[in-house]
């Protein structure tokens, strides 16, 4: 098992060093590495996990990474996967907070190249998921309707609504069909453990504001602010921005200019955008503040996933749930397709040259079967060569 944990750490660390482009791009990198290359999960297992994490509040891509680590190496494997994927961006943003500015990378055009890499990676992931999860006209229609809904209704709640609606449609269409049994994740989590995790999640959400009111401790204040942001936000890292801004700027913990500068830096580093909390904590109170903020904002993701997964593994075996899952998985394809367009494609492709570069990277990834880390290196070099000043 130690060898498995070491493997999880090395693979997740490499992804943490090379996964640029935000949450949707991360899902593409994960599918390429964990599903296509290493076969740790099947397409259906991966889609089920993505659907569950899209439904939960918190950083969806981080939760997916935790779930994959748990499937491979138990609960500790999930924690190791999280540490490997998250540590690079935490350390980089702490460094930014003490003066190692990343603006030079932007001037060199590297970020432009990495954005185009994200287009190729997400498109590749979407292609594979579409073939497996929307193979017929009915599920393809669910995927397209989900795509249309997410594009036309740019609201935080729309993704959850699409998943619920797709589940109901899937149940209606496939409830009388003999669908294959769900491919559950190889996890052993007891109902008692699940209940403890959910109780901790709710207890901390209720207790931290009371502790904050009863004490002048800066770290209690940080824990309350960042835990609440991690527990209540749907839609990923970009949505957490206004929540964090209201917690730290009006209270005088950080200036608006420092807040925006850190957010810009968070866009330029790999890994989860929620590690923006590490930058904020570092500015506010050095390394202790960064540690408190980072732990607080990610703890809800852990507790919710550990609390909900056992129930999810049980109910997905029921015939009605398998029918609903057929619709949900198709909707996930549509949701990812919408995210491929905006923000991934719209922020990366501005002209024909950008599209040509993305097409070349896509060709290398799909047809020449080159690994994602090599595509990242080519994207960095291409960004410096073609977009640098």
UniProtKB/TrEMBL annotation:
<feature type="transmembrane region" description="Helical">
    <location>
        <begin position="356"/>
        <end position="387"/>
    </location>
</feature>
<feature type="transmembrane region" description="Helical">
    <location>
        <begin position="142"/>
        <end position="173"/>
    </location>
</feature>
<keyword id="KW-0812">Transmembrane</keyword>
<feature type="transmembrane region" description="Helical">
    <location>
        <begin position="110"/>
        <end position="130"/>
    </location>
</feature>
<feature type="transmembrane region" description="Helical">
    <location>
        <begin position="290"/>
        <end position="313"/>
    </location>
</feature>
<keyword id="KW-0472">Membrane</keyword>
<dbReference type="InterPro" id="IPR003370">
    <property type="entry name" value="Chromate_transpt"/>
</dbReference>
<keyword id="KW-1003">Cell membrane</keyword>
<feature type="transmembrane region" description="Helical">
    <location>
        <begin position="325"/>
        <end position="344"/>
    </location>
</feature>
<feature type="transmembrane region" description="Helical">
    <location>
        <begin position="76"/>
        <end position="98"/>
    </location>
</feature>
<keyword id="KW-1133">Transmembrane helix</keyword>
<dbReference type="GO" id="GO:0015109">
    <property type="term" value="F:chromate transmembrane transporter activity"/>
</dbReference>
<feature type="transmembrane region" description="Helical">
    <location>
        <begin position="193"/>
        <end position="214"/>
    </location>
</feature>
<dbReference type="GO" id="GO:0005886">
    <property type="term" value="C:plasma membrane"/>
</dbReference>
<dbReference type="InterPro" id="IPR014047">
    <property type="entry name" value="Chr_Tranpt_l_chain"/>
</dbReference>
<dbReference type="Pfam" id="PF02417">
    <property type="entry name" value="Chromate_transp"/>
</dbReference>
<feature type="transmembrane region" description="Helical">
    <location>
        <begin position="6"/>
        <end position="30"/>
    </location>
</feature>
<comment type="similarity">
    <text>Belongs to the chromate ion transporter (CHR) (TC 2.A.51) family.</text>
</comment>
<protein>
    <submittedName>
        <fullName>Chromate efflux transporter</fullName>
    </submittedName>
</protein>
């Amino acid at each position: 098992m130690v060898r498995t944990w070491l493997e999880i750490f090395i693979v997740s660390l490499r992804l943490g060093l090379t996964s640029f482009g935000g949450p949707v791009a991360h899902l593409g990198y994960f599918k390429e590495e964990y599903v296509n290359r290493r076969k740790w999960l099947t397409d259906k297992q991966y889609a089920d996990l993505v659907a569950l994490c899209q439904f939960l509040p918190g950083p969806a891509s981080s939760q997916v990474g935790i779930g994959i680590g748990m499937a491979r190496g138990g609960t500790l494997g999930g924690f190791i996967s999280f540490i490997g994927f998250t540590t690079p961006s935490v350390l980089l943003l702490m460094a930014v907070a003490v003066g190692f500015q990343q603006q030079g990378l932007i001037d060199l055009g590297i970020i432009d190249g990495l954005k185009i890499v994200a287009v190729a990676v997400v498109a590749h992931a979407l292609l594979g998921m579409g073939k497996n999860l929307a193979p017929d006209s009915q599920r393809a229609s669910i995927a397209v309707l989900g795509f249309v809904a997410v594009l036309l209704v740019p609201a935080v709640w729309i993704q959850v609504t699409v998943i619920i609606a797709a589940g109901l449609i899937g149940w209606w269409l496939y409830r009388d069909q003999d669908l294959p049994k769900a491919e559950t994740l190889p996890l052993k989590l007891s109902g008692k453990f699940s209940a403890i995790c959910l109780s901790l999640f709710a207890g901390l959400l209720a207790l931290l504001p009371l502790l904050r009111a009863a004490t002048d401790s800066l770290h209690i204040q940080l824990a309350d602010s960042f835990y609440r942001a991690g527990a209540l936000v749907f839609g990923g890292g970009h949505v957490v921005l206004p929540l964090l801004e209201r917690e730290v700027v009006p209270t005088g913990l950080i200036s608006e200019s420092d807040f925006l500068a850190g957010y810009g830096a968070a866009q330029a580093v790999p890994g989860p955008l929620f590690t923006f909390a590490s930058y904020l904590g570092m500015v506010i109170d050095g390394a202790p503040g960064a540690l408190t903020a980072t732990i607080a904002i990610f703890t809800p993701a852990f507790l919710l996933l550990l609390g909900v997964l056992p129930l999810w593994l049980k109910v997905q075996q029921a015939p009605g749930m398998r029918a609903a899952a057929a619709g949900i998985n198709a909707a996930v394809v549509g949701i990812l397709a919408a995210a491929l367009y905006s923000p991934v494609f719209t922020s990366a492709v501005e002209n024909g040259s950008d599209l040509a570069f993305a097409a070349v990277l896509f060709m290398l990834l799909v047809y020449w079967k080159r690994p994602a880390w090599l595509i990242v290196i080519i994207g960095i070099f291409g960004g410096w060569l073609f977009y640098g000043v």
